TrEMBL record:
Its EC number is 6.3.2.2. Keywords: ATP-binding, Disulfide bond, Glutathione biosynthesis, Ligase, Nucleotide-binding, Transit peptide. It comes from the Bacteria. Pathway: Sulfur metabolism; glutathione biosynthesis; glutathione from L-cysteine and L-glutamate: step 1/2. One of its GO terms (biological process) is glutathione biosynthetic process. Disulfide bonds join 114-335. InterPro entries: GCL_bact_plant, GCS2, Gln_synth/guanido_kin_cat_dom, Glut_cys_lig_pln_type. It comes from Mesorhizobium erdmanii. Homodimer or monomer when oxidized or reduced, respectively. GO terms for molecular function: ATP binding; glutamate-cysteine ligase activity. It catalyses: L-cysteine + L-glutamate + ATP = gamma-L-glutamyl-L-cysteine + ADP + phosphate + H(+). This is Glutamate--cysteine ligase. It is an enzyme of class 6 (ligase).
Amino acid sequence: MARDTTDFRPIEGVDELVEHLAEGNKPRDKWRIGTEHEKFPFYVDGNAPVPYGGERGIRAILEGMQTKLGWDPIIDDGRIIGLVEPTGQGAISLEPGGQFELSGAPLETIHQTCREGNAHLAQVREIAEPMGIRFLGLGGSPKWSLAETPKMPKSRYEIMTRYMPKVGTKGLDMMYRTCTIQVNLDFESEADMRRKMQVSLKLQPLSTALFANSPFTESRPNGLQSWRGDIWRDTDNQRSGLLEFCFSPDFGFADYVEWALDVPMYFVIRDGRYHDMTHITFRQFMAGAARNEVPDGLPTMGDWANHLSTLFPDVRLKRFLEMRGADGGPWRRICALPAFWVGLLYDEAALDAAEALTASWTYKEVLAMRNAVPELGIAAPFRNTTLREIARDVMAISRTGLKNRGKKNRDGYDETSFLNTLDEVVARGTTSAEEMLSAYHTRWGGSIEPVFMEYAY
C-alpha cells in the first residue's frame, strides 16, 4: 500500500464498517483490473542489496522517478518513501526491505496492464541503470541474509518489525525478503463478492504452485519451490492464511468485518505520527481502549481503512478483492497473474464453471493443498490426482473466460496469449522454481549468482 489513508469521519457503529465494504459494489461496466508487482533492487557489481540512502540508493531512484513522472511524493517523517499519480491512477511504494512496488492504475484490459508494466520497467531502468542498479523478479530474496537486507524508513514498518517476532517465526522474512504479484478485482454485489471470494480462496494454492519462484535462500536451495508460500504459513496466523468462515454458504461483508474487528491493530495516525496499537484489537479500539493513549483516541473511517490494509489473508477483502497467493516473477508473469484471475472471475460462464469445479472442496482439503504446495508445487496431491491435472481444467476455464471477454488489442489478439507462460508450466510439469534448481545443479555450477542475470529486469 503506497499511502496510508486519512479520513477523519468518526465511526458510530459496526454497520458503518460493513457499509464501507459494500460501497465497493460496482456495475460490470465499471469493473477494473489493478495489478501490483514487487521486485528486488540490486547492484550489478557484486549482486549486493541497495540501501535507502546515498547517491546510488533507493531514495535517489524515487527522486529520479519523481522528476521523470511528475508524480506527487509520499513523505514519512521528512523522507520520501513513495510516489502517487496526482489523480490516483497508480503509485510507487517501498516494501520493508527495499522491494520496489508498482501499484498499477485500475485498467480495463490485460493489454493495458502489460503496457503499464512495460512502461514502468523501462522508466525505472532508465533511472536505475546509470547507478549500476537492476531489479530481480523472484518470489524470495535468493542471497542476502536478514541482517544484510536494508531497512526502509517507513513508520508502519518499524511497528511491524517489533511486532512480528511476537506472533510467528517468519514474519520478518515475509516483510524483508519476499516479493509478489497481485491483482485487485471488483464485484457487483455481496453475492458476487461471495462467489469470487470462495472460488479464489479455493484456487489460491494453485496460483501459488503455478507461480512458484523462490527456491533459494542465502545462496542455497531451501528445499522448497515457493519459500514465500511457506513463509505465509507462520507469519501471523491471526491476520493471515485461509479463512474458514469464508467457506460458509451465507458468508458476507458482515462476517469479514466481525473477523477483522478481533484482529490486533498495527497503528493509528494522528497529526502525521504513527502510534503503535498492536496491544489492542479494533473492537477494543471502538470500545474506547485508546481514549487516553493517543490524541483523538476514538476510531475514524481512516483508521478502519488502514486496519483492513494490515490484514493478510490469502484473498483480502477491501472495496475490491486482492489475489495474494503468487510469488513475484519475470515480466511475463506480471501479465499472466491478472490474466489468470480475470479469466476465471470476470466472465459469468467461467465463474460458473470454476464454482462448479470447486463446489465440493472443503476447507480442510484446501488447507492441506495449501500446506503441500510450497514444497511440491504443481505435483501437490489433491484427492486422487495432482494440482497439475487440476490446473489443466482451471486453465481451460480461464482461457474460455478471456475469450468470452473479447478484449482485443490493435492487432486483433485477445487476452488469452497472456496465459501462455502458465500453459508452459502445466505442459512441461515443472515450475519456474524447478527450472532454476535444475540450472543450479547443472549449468550454473552450484551457484545462485546467475539468477541475477537471467531473472533481472
